[in-house]
Amino acid sequence: MSERLALIWGSAFFAGSLAQATAWVTGQPAVVLLLGMGLLAGHAGFDLVHPEDLGAGLEPVVGLLVSLVLFDGGLNLRLAGRDLQRSVLQLVLVRLVLGLPLAALLAHLLAGLPWSLSLVYGAIALATGPTVVTPMVRQLRLAPKLAQLLEAEGLILEPVSAVLGLVLLQVTLGDLGGWQEVASRLLLRLGGGVAIGGLAGLLLSEALSRLGAVGAANGGDGAVSAEASGLELQLTLGALFLMFSGCEALLPESGLPAAVSAGVVVGLRLDAAATQLDELIRQLAMLAITVLFPLLAADVSWAELSPLGLGGVGCVLALMLVRWPLIQATGLGLPSLDWREKVLLSWIAPRGIVTAAVVSLFALELDRAEVAGGGVLKGLVFLTILMTVGLQGFTAPWLVARLGLSQPGSGAEPAPLEPALAGEAADLPRAG
Q1: Between 430 and 192, whose confidence is greater?
Q2: How far apart (Å, rounded) are the C-alpha atoms in residues 430 and 423?
Q3: Which letter does DSSP use for residue 405 in this model?
Q4: Could you tell me where the DSSP H helices lie in 76-217?
């Protein structure tokens, strides 16, 4: 049995690395190839990888690796300037207030989900994950403002989506009473996660500062520097994983906002001193994406997608198109966003790993409670991931080139996979 489990992990790593190498050589979007490789290796393809055989051990591993990706995003989150901060705030609020009910309405009318599960789908569909957005914007070489806006949207909405989806699921299962209890549970988990993450970030940044000072005092030659960097990485991972697992034990789903909050605090406090740590964390985050995407995609079967039919496809297409009026509403009073930027923001909204992991967990909970519709909900969410990643991943390079929104000097043609997607430095300029 242990050999079988090792083979599953080994196959997932190989499939992901092969997808990254193919993207590097061909210049195709890495996230699309990662998803496609997982589909080929899993139930929808040659049926070689069976993630369900990993059992209960898969969920905590996915959670820890996702926390690493979110922490990496928080480290690099720099919202310099009031216009950018206001744009992020308006985008998040518009998506929450208008995006969720619109997605729920589409899921009910077109995909046939009952209202209770339609609301759960609307919450899950809020997340535009940094696990796919970050590699995409780096490969597209977007101008810093647009890249930061898209990444900030994902970093904020992904944990909010997971927590909100869990609370609405508990309403569906009858575990919660009125909406006052729903609101208090939501605020407790989000606020508690942010607070714990902020405190952990303060303690970690202080420890990293002292460790860096000791390393500099011990001579600062190459060997000492490498040793100090290794210790910083080990300390960061240890603190991050302990914080995440502790948050999940105390308040389920609070670990995701905690990871973002901790990353933001560490990045702001260390600033320039965090550059080398940024690079090490980014390499590990990309490794996490490389293995997680094929592994979760391998769990998708055509049996879960085929019952949705044209209604499911129409629901996802409508969800993609309805982002256009939401972006227009976001841009009201924001002269800093021109029409080209609004067009691009209206199109790029892929869903990623956290969305897949969350709905897989929710489907299991619904099955245990013998509530009908768990399989349909999972199928619709995975169809959303497949269509948004596939359609937007392939067309985004062309759209960026036509709109002229890549960074100066990067060229108008779709860019080949940069070293950032292989875990090396091709970073966006850090503002502030």
Answers
A1: 192
A2: 18
A3: -
A4: 82-94, 100-109, 115-124, 130-140, 144-172, 179-217
At residue 208, does pLDDT exceed 90? no
Rg (CA), the chain: 21
> What pLDDT shows up at residue 242?
95
* Helices and strands (DSSP H and E) totals, the chain: 19, 0
User: Could you give the CA distance from residue 166 to residue 186 in angstroms, rounded to a whole number?
Assistant: 9
Ramachandran bin of 409, using left for φ above 0, alpha for ψ from -120 to 50, beta for the remaining angles: left
Task: Map tokens 């489990």 to a residue.
Answer: 5
Quickly list H helices, 1-81: 2-26, 30-41, 58-75
Could you give the angle at the alpha carbon of 430 between the alpha carbons of 424 and 432, nearest 5°?
160
Separation of alpha carbons 424 and 432, rounded Å: 22
- Number of residues written out for the chain: 432
CA distance 122 to 231: 42
**Counting Cβ atoms within 10 Å, is residue 328 exposed (0-12), middle (13-18) or buried (19+)?**
middle
- Tell me the whole-structure pTM to 2 decimals: 0.80
pLDDT value of position 422: 39
Question: In the 8-state DSSP scheme, what is residue 406?
Answer: B
Residue whose tokens read 């967990």 = 361
The answer to whether 207 and 235 have CB atoms below 8 angstroms apart is yes
Mean per-residue pLDDT over the chain, rounded: 81
Q: Could you tell me the residue ranges of all domains in the chain?
A: 2-422
Amino acid (1-letter code) at residue 179: W
Q: Note the CATH architecture for domain 2-422.
A: Up-down Bundle (1.20)
Q: How does DSSP classify residue 424?
A: S
Residue 202 identity (one-letter amino acid): L
The pLDDT of residue 412 is above 50: no
CB atoms within 10 A of CB 94: 18
Token digits of residue 396:
């985004």
SS3 at position 298: coil
Residue with tokens 């490789």: 37
